[in-house]
Amino acid sequence: DQQVKQNSPSLSVQEGRISILNCDYTNSMFDYFLWYKKYPAEGPTFLISISSIKDKNEDGRFTVFLNKSAKHLSLHIVPSQPGDSAVYFCAEHSGNTGKLIFGQGTTLQVKP
Amino acid sequence: DAGVIQSPRHEVTEMGQEVTLRCKPISGHDYLFWYRQTMMRGLELLIYFNNNVPIDDSGMPEDRFSAKMPNASFSTLKIQPSEPRDSAVYFCAVHSGPLGNTIYFGEGSWLTVV
User: Fold this and answer.
1) Cβ proximity of A13 and A109 under 8 Å
2) Counting one residue from A and one from B, how many pairs have CB atoms under 8 Å apart?
3) Alpha carbon distance B52, B77 (integer Å)
4) Do A6 and B42 count as a contact with CB atoms less than 8 A apart?
5) Are A81 and A70 in contact (CB under 8 A)?
């Protein structure tokens, strides 16, 4: 029973174009939603987050959108670069309990 | 770099053997998490601790799995007996404070049970 779902296992995008990674969640009790990036043989690293009271957060090429009514989260990367090729995990975090739950991950490939 | 050190980095063991994975974070973090990465479930939360006390172990798959945190700078995840389906990458992560962006992962322990 997956609380955080990333329904697309993989995504392939041309360099310079936009990458859109999607995530759905079931539990609305979490305070923050996060995106992590993972390269092979390394641990995940934090990319960007959004508070549950906001609907958009932007950091350079990365923008996260939160649609609370649809329980949907998305990460936009524009323009995409080959170095962005990695596995991207979305996660939800509760500031109250400290619990942090991840999705299955989406493998992004950015082609030169 | 929050200095989360995991060991061993790689382990190959035979089915039925005991496996102990270790995590040594730099002290000062309130929370410690153990995750397992698989293709099907992604990063699966196994257990997490707050101030060295286990808070939620509902993700531990079976009684064969156990975890301890005797102090703020050390935690273990033990599998006894191990089975081939336990083969995965196991990650330790630490976190402090209310914000979700202060969570740091180790590099993982790659376990293969044959």
Assistant:
1) yes
2) 73
3) 14
4) yes
5) no
What percent of chain A is helix, strand and coil (3-state, nearest 5)? 5, 55, 45
Place of tokens 């089915």: B15
Answer yes or no: do A34 and B101 touch at CB < 8 A: yes
Q: What is the DSSP letter of A95?
A: T
Contact B103 A93 (CB under 8 A): yes
Distance from CA of A74 to the nearest CA of B (A): 17
Contact flag B40-A104 (C-beta cutoff 8 Å): yes
- Residue B82 three-state SS: coil
Cβ(A23)–Cβ(A103) under 8 Å? yes
The terminus-to-terminus CA distance of chain A in angstroms comes to 37
Report yes or no: A64 and A73 within 8 Å, Cβ to Cβ: yes
Per-residue pLDDT tens, chain A, 112 aa: give them: 678 999 999 999 999 999 999 999 998 888 899 999 999 989 999 999 999 999 999 999 999 999 999 999 999 999 999 999 999 999 998 878 888 899 999 999 999 9
